[in-house]
Amino acid sequence: MTSTDPATRNKDLALHTFAEFAAGNTEVLRTALHDDFVEHSPGNPSGKDAFLDFITRAQVATARLELARVIAEDDYVVMHYRLVPSDGEPELAVVDIWRFADGKIVEHWDVVQHVPVPAEVPHGMF
Q1: Which domain does 88 fall in, by range?
Q2: Which of 11, 14, 54, 125 could join 72 via S-S bond, C-beta 3.0 to 4.6 A?
């Protein structure tokens, strides 16, 4: 049974997309992204096709992604996760903010920072 609550529907879509992408299925974004997709993160291209080309070659496409939490409200889903690069680069803490329209991701923002050594964050990042 599909939920009629937009936040629940959007959260379910985001979790499905995240799980598929984390498992190596970068093509899942082709159906998840809205045709009018807008990227708000500096340095990342906007537009569905440009973003797909970028993200499938980006570090995140081959990294291990460890989801810590998901928050959904109305048309927005926020995902907080650890990104462990496959090339030995430092781990990253990532917060993605997705806005949904018509059952697809139409906008994206993110905040990314390096995960410091444990002594610098005694209570952890996640």
Answers
A1: 6-120
A2: 11
21 assigned to some structural domain: yes
Measured CA angle at 60 (ends 55, 75), to 5 deg: 70
Instruction: Assign residue 53 the CATH number of its domain.
Output: 3.10.450.50
pLDDT of the chain along its 126 residues, tens only? 567 899 999 999 999 999 999 999 999 999 999 999 999 999 999 999 999 999 999 999 999 999 999 999 999 999 999 999 999 999 999 999 999 999 999 999 999 999 998 889 989 889
User: Is position 104 within any domain?
Assistant: yes
C-alpha span between 72 and 125 (Å, rounded): 20
**66 within 8 A of 59, measured Cβ to Cβ:** no
Sheet of 92-101, strand order: 33-39, 104-114, 92-101, 76-84, 64-73
| Contact call for residues 11 and 77 (beta carbons, < 8 A) | yes
| Contact criterion met (CB below 8 Å) for 71 and 78 | yes
Give the C-alpha separation, 107 to 23, whole Å.
23
